[in-house]
Write a structure and sequence with these properties.
Layout: H1 8-32, H2 39-106, H3 111-136, H4 144-205, H5 223-250, H6 255-262, H7 275-286, H8 305-318, H9 323-329, H10 334-346, H11 349-356, H12 360-366, H13 374-393, E1 401-403, E2 416-418, H14 422-425, E3 440-446, E4 448-451, E5 454-456, E6 458-463
Parallel strand pairs: 2-6
Antiparallel strand pairs: 1-4, 3-6, 4-5
């Protein structure tokens, strides 16, 4: 029995080996995933859950990073598209502004302004083409924030320029309306003065020769009626000329050059006297063929009393009617033909384009309609009075004849009346040593008339620089 029992050190040594073997097994279990028991099992579970959680966090972080990248890319694309649209609309606004500048530079004509506006429009059209190509090739703007700011600035500048041009156009229209108001005020003052003069004549002689008197009969017609109505006609001509000169100034025309083109080498004592050259131009066209019935050579037979009565009836019929209403009711009448022909002859196409920037008025007049403009209204009033004066002239027996004097004629108070007295009191410095003391006729402003033995003086502009010729 004693031999079968092992010593204590041997037993202890066996226990140590067993403990080490058990520890190795546990470690192997941990490495191989074998779940141990007790507290050690709990610790292993927590460790595994922590590893799994770390893996999930890494995976979620990767997913979030990828999502943020996609959102940022979409945001950049959207911002680049907004920049493209902003630049597109800003470019369109610039084209609109450039086109407005182009229209404004055409009337009055400004070649430098037209060239500048044309270059602007062409440059912006090129920009549009570049934007189109960028969009088709999907070439995004590398700096969209800066592009958005610049596009907004460009948009504001274009809108501001458009408003500025609109303001200038309104300012021109305002000046034109102010000139019309001044013209109407002067016309009103002239009418008041004429009324006072008629009242004075009425008080002195007991009768008043008024061409608008509805009780006037053919048998009572005398040269005084013609003189009075001629005065009204000349007033309407001068009103139209004043309005035409205002239009020339608004169109930036050179008034001096225009007057010299009508009558070259004429010395004017005052700058304002150049308006008489335009009065001559208008009267020359409006009174052309005045000696022919209805301003045409349709009839060359001798006038009878029936013809005189017919002309006088036309005079009495038309004098109380407004010209536009008459032309609208009778578009194919002789008066309508007269107005269309004189307007197309008086207002040259270049002049009309300079005044209005287009040829619409001329096309409407050619078609038989006069538009509602101040220039056309003044023209129709003038044409009506010239036509009425023509009818009144052919109501006489014999009919009134028309005459004018040529350049260089010697002044005669019997047949002429000077539109200004400056020629009699002033003298050019370069002619102080000249022996000539009497001025000569530079041109006829308003023609004169003869009714039987009565002569109505023509109105002339005198200048000492004109060579004198005898009156024929």
């Amino acid at each position: 029995m004693m031999e079968s029992v092992k010593p204590l050190d041997v037993v202890a040594s066996g226990k140590g080996k067993l403990r080490r073997t058990f520890a190795k097994v546990i470690n192997i279990k941990k490495l191989t995933g074998v779940v141990p028991e007790g507290n050690k099992v709990e610790r292993v579970k927590k460790s595994q859950e922590k590893v799994k959680l770390d893996k999930d966090l890494v995976k979620n972080a990767a997913n979030l990073s990828e999502s943020f990248d996609k959102l940022e890319e979409e945001y950049e694309k959207r911002l680049a598209m907004e920049a493209l649209l902003a630049k597109l609309f800003a470019t369109i606004s610039s084209i609109k502004s450039g086109y407005a500048q182009l229209q404004y530079a055409q009337s009055p004509y400004d070649p430098n302004g037209i060239q500048k506006a044309d270059n602007l429009v062409v440059a912006e059209l090129k920009t549009l083409s570049e934007l189109k190509q960028s969009f088709l090739k999907n070439q995004l703007d590398p700096n969209p924030d800066r592009t958005l700011v610049l596009a907004e600035i460009q948009e504001l500048r274009s809108v501001l320029k458009t408003y500025e041009i609109t303001g200038k156009k309104l300012e021109c229209q305002l000046k034109l309306k102010e000139s019309e108001i001044i013209f109407l005020k002067e016309k009103f003052q002239e009418s008041m003065s004429q009324n006072k003069l008629m009242e004075k004549r009425l008080n002195q002689s007991g009768q008043l020769c008024n061409p608008l008197d509805h009780n006037l009969h053919l048998s009572a017609l005398n040269p005084t009626h013609f003189v009075t109505y001629l005065h009204h006609t000349v007033k309407s001509i001068r009103g139209f000329v004043k309005l035409m000169i205002e239009q020339m100034k608004l169109a930036a025309w050179d008034i001096d050059m225009a007057a010299d083109s009508i009558h070259p080498e004429v010395f004017y004592y005052k700058q304002d006297h150049k308006c008489f050259a335009f009065e001559h131009y208008v009267c020359k066209i409006m009174f052309e063929a005045f000696h022919l019935p209805y301003f045409s050579n349709e009839s060359s037979k001798k006038k009878s009393r029936e013809d005189r009565e017919m002309f006088f009836e036309r005079f009495t019929e038309l004098r109380s009617m407004k010209p536009k209403e008459y032309l609208a009711s009778r578009p194919k009448s002789r008066l309508a033909k007269f107005c269309r022909g004189k307007y197309l002859q008086l207002i040259h196409p270049k002049m009309e384009h300079a005044f209005f920037g287009h040829m619409h008025l001329r096309n409407q007049v050619t078609a038989g309609a006069f538009p509602e403009t101040s220039l056309c209204t003044a023209f129709l009033e003038m044409a009506k009075r010239v036509w009425l004066l023509h009818c009144l002239a052919f109501s006489f027996d014999p009919e009134a004849s028309i005459f004018q004097v040529s350049r260089g004629c010697r002044f005669s108070e019997v047949y002429m009346k000077s539109v200004t007295e400056d020629a009699f009191f002033s003298r050019p410095e370069e002619e102080e040593s000249s022996s000539e003391t009497e001025p000569g006729v530079a041109f006829t402003v308003v023609p004169g008339f003869r009714i039987g033995k009565t002569s109505i003086q023509c109105e002339v502009y005198l200048s000492r620089s004109c060579q004198r010729r005898p009156i024929r």
